[in-house]
Specification:
Elements: E1 4-8, H1 19-29, E2 33-37, H2 38-41, H3 49-58, E3 61-67, H4 75-84, E4 102-108, H5 126-129, H6 131-139, E5 143-150, H7 163-185, H8 188-205, H9 211-214, E6 217-225, E7 228-231, H10 232-246, E8 252-263, E9 266-278, E10 289-302, E11 308-318
Parallel strand pairs: 1-2, 1-3, 3-4, 4-5, 6-11
Antiparallel strand pairs: 6-7, 8-9, 9-10, 10-11
Helix pairs in contact: 1-7
This protein binds flavin mononucleotide.
Flavin mononucleotide (FMN) binds at residues 10, 16-19, 67-71, 108-111, 153-154.
Length: 320
């Protein structure tokens, strides 16, 4: 597991109804996490830069956890960024100390979803409003991960929301955040291995809807099969329709070998798959029971949420 550092930027967690719940959930769910509560460490705003930089250097994933204040981070967290992301640490000639680390914003927002858009009171989307933080990550050569945030988190007794509703939303937020952290901190190899098993479990069932597959295919996927080459999601769907007309659901894809290596643009997986399937009388296989061995080569990228995206998928039969 990689090391996770959570910086809590709430100015007073004793008065928090939601950030405090999220931090408690993180603390009990994650084994290798350091949570730094800036309000307890620096009530006077005097940040210990050396201590904060040392914590950052050890981390693989940095999570900023905060309540959304005036369309941005609270002052205490801004002070932390100003002091800690210093010249020759986060940027500048020798400023490569954060390079390659994942950077994830996790925040609670008082206002509702519909207020954040061109027709809403707040005019801009949340993604637009957090762009200065996104660019901060880029300047520090960090990987900016899609943020996790939740609306309607303000609680003012008798005025806005019910306590149990905002705390319920805080728990849901924590669940999403924990799953994102787990996804990011599992090594790419482990994630690809898990993905391969899920992929073939679905293929064994041949569901009517193909979203599970297309969600993990690049828009311009090259899908190269013994029966021909197909391109993009449309190409995949037409191949998949043919496959569903040939194979009966409940086939068995056995992963006999799987080798994963890093490439310039992501990863390559080399697979040896044994397929046992029953076929329809009306298909080209004329009801024959199949037992085939194929080699597959997948070119894999990871999107900004850490999800797997297949760019190129080739299947070549092996002589039995
Ligand atoms: C000083 C201040 C500024 C705030 N600014 C915003 C804002 O710009 N947009 C918004 O939707 N909510 C805003 N809120 C509401 C907070 O985002 C909300 O109360 C907070 O996320 C709840 O977290 P907590 O329960 O952990 O304190 C603001 C609240 C305070 C106190």
């Amino acid at each position: 597991m990689s090391k996770v550092l959570v910086i809590s930027g709430h100015p007073d967690l004793q008065k928090s109804f939601t950030n405090t719940v999220i931090l408690e959930e993180l603390n009990s769910a994650l084994s290798d996490v350091e949570i730094r509560r800036l309000d307890a460490l620096y009530p006077d705003f005097k940040i210990d830069v050396a201590a904060e930089q040392a914590a950052l250097v050890k981390a693989d994933l940095v999570v900023l956890q905060f309540p959304f204040y005036w369309y941005s981070v609270p002052g205490l967290l801004k002070q932390w960024i100003d002091d800690v992301f210093s010249y020759n640490f986060a940027y500048g000639a020798e400023g490569d100390k954060l390079k390659g680390k994942d950077f994830l914003l996790s925040f609670t927002i008082g206002g509702p979803e519909e207020a954040y858009g061109p027709l809403g009171n707040n005019h801009f989307s949340i993604e637009e409003l957090v762009k200065p933080l996104q660019q901060t990550a880029y300047l520090a050569a960090m990987n900016y991960i899609k943020p996790v945030y939740t609306h309607r988190m303000v609680y003012i007794p008798g005025v806005y929301n019910e306590l149990e509703d905002v705390q319920g939303r805080a728990k849901e937020h924590a669940t999403r955040l924990i799953s994102q952290i787990e996804k990011l901190t599992n090594s790419a190899e482990v994630r690809i291995q898990k993905f391969v098993s899920e992929w073939f479990e679905q293929f064994d069932q041949l569901p009517q809807e193909s979203e599970f597959f297309t969600n993990s295919l690049a828009e311009d996927i090259n899908w190269v099969m013994p029966e021909g080459a197909f391109s993009g999601h449309e190409g995949f769907r037409s191949w998949y329709a043919q496959a569903r007309e040939s194979f009966k659901p409940g086939c068995d894809h056995d992963v006999e070998q799987l080798e994963i290596k890093a490439t310039e643009n992501g990863f390559q997986a080399d697979l040896r798959i044994r397929l046992r399937a029953e076929t329809y009388e009306t298909s080209v296989f004329k009801g024959e029971s199949l037992n085939l061995l194929v080699n597959e080569v997948w070119q894999i990228g990871l999107n900004d949420s850490g999800d797997i995206l297949l760019n190129d998928y080739r299947v070549v039969p092996v002589a039995n």
